[in-house]
Amino acid sequence: MISHVLPTYNRAPLAFTKGEGSWLWAEDGSRYLDLGAGIAVNALGHAHPALVATLTEQAGKLWHVSNLYRIPEQERLADLLVDKTFADTVFFTNSGTEAAELAIKMVRKYWSEKGQPDRTLILTFEGSFHGRSTGAIAAAGSEKMTKGFGPLMPGFKSLPFGDHDALRAALTGQVAAVMIEPVQGEGGIRTLPDACLKGLRDLCDATGALLVFDEVQCGMGRTGKLFAHEWAGVTPDIMMVAKGIGGGFPLGAVLATENAAFGMTAGTHGSTYGGNPLGCAVGAKVVEIIADDAFLSDVSRRAAQFRQGLEGLVAAHPQVFASVRGQGLMLGLKCTATNTDVVKAAYGQHLLTVPAADNVIRILPALTITEADIAEALARLDRAATAVEQAV
């Protein structure tokens, strides 16, 4: 018999009842050190006091009214994001997938309004992940996500990751946009070099194509800047945000320049729940905390400590780990052993990590993880690696 919960996940045999900071408590009372943070969602850890207080206060006042009316909490969060980024305008969603759908619609509407409705081609990259909707899987194009779900939405071309010649050949004056993650998450923590992001911006400027950044996983302080593209000193025309922006509350957003949002007038898009008072109150508190320069400096400092320790593990366990990759606290361990074996061995040490493509395990801790917890995480990863070696 099929389970009452649709079995689309291969879930670990673990269930948690409580969280605090970087720690989770299982049903049996045992404690796990969380290096996954709900896949980069719990940016400020579990049960952050400021977020609990904000959510509780707002829950006692107003949950939902719909976008038929002004929502002051939504306006406040939009003001914060516009003040801190390249954007002139923001639309709020419930997830990264919804943000991807709007980004695609925005690109197509832009060119339609510019009198070029047939200019619909969006270039994407092998290994990318933009969500699970029909549009998002068509954008990524991988067989793993698209098999059995055809016919796929047309209008996308996936290019090899890092192939500059293929990009230059494909990016003609007929391309509507380029959509890319500055750091691929699901694809195996692959970072696009700053020079490549700058070159991509130049190519888009030369051809008129819009540049769309997917910072659903790599944004919100994850790399040590509020958004990852800031390291390269370039800006997109459109950006998708989610995961960490709600600190655990379902929230996403599309940020855009006034030019890119040219065609998005009343009636062209909507959301029943997107931008509700609860989500936006929490999101505003998250942005206030993470956008602080001192907070981001601490993220970079802790990231350097973590990376140094991971490099030591690679040297100590060459049969298990091959290399460290990533930026800030969006780190990946490229494995020599099978990555899922390492994830399972870490469960045995009461440590949670996240598998990814390219035989990588992701290290995505809360941005507030302490130095002591990093040291503990490294010790548990060391024991997990030893267990994998002994199992061979």
Helices and strands in order:
Elements: E1 16-20, E2 23-26, E3 31-34, H1 37-40, H2 49-59, H3 72-84, E4 89-93, H4 96-113, E5 121-125, H5 134-140, H6 143-146, E6 156-159, H7 164-170, E7 175-180, E8 183-184, E9 190-191, H8 194-207, E10 210-214, E11 238-241, E12 252-256, H9 277-290, H10 293-316, E13 321-327, E14 330-335, H11 339-348, E15 351-352, E16 354-356, E17 360-363, H12 371-391
Parallel strand pairs: 3-15, 5-6, 5-7, 7-10, 10-11
Antiparallel strand pairs: 1-2, 2-3, 4-12, 8-9, 11-12, 13-14, 14-17, 16-17
Helix pairs in contact: 2-9, 3-9, 10-12, 11-12
Short description:
By secondary structure, the chain is an alpha/beta fold.
Mean pLDDT reading: 97
- CATH class descriptor of the largest domain: Alpha Beta
End-to-end C-alpha gap: 36 Å
Q: What is the alpha-carbon Rg in Å?
A: 21 Å
Strand residue percentage: 15-25%
CATH topology of the largest domain: Aspartate Aminotransferase, domain 2
Output the strand order for the largest sheet: 4-12-11-10-7-5-6
Overall geometric form: globular
CATH superfamily grouping of the largest domain: Type I PLP-dependent aspartate aminotransferase-like (Major domain)
Low-confidence stretches: none
The helix fraction, in percent, is 25-40%
H/E element string?
A: EEEHHHEHEHHEHEEEHEEEHHEEHEEEH
Number of strands: 17
- The helix-and-strand class reads alpha/beta
Largest sheet: 7 strands, mixed
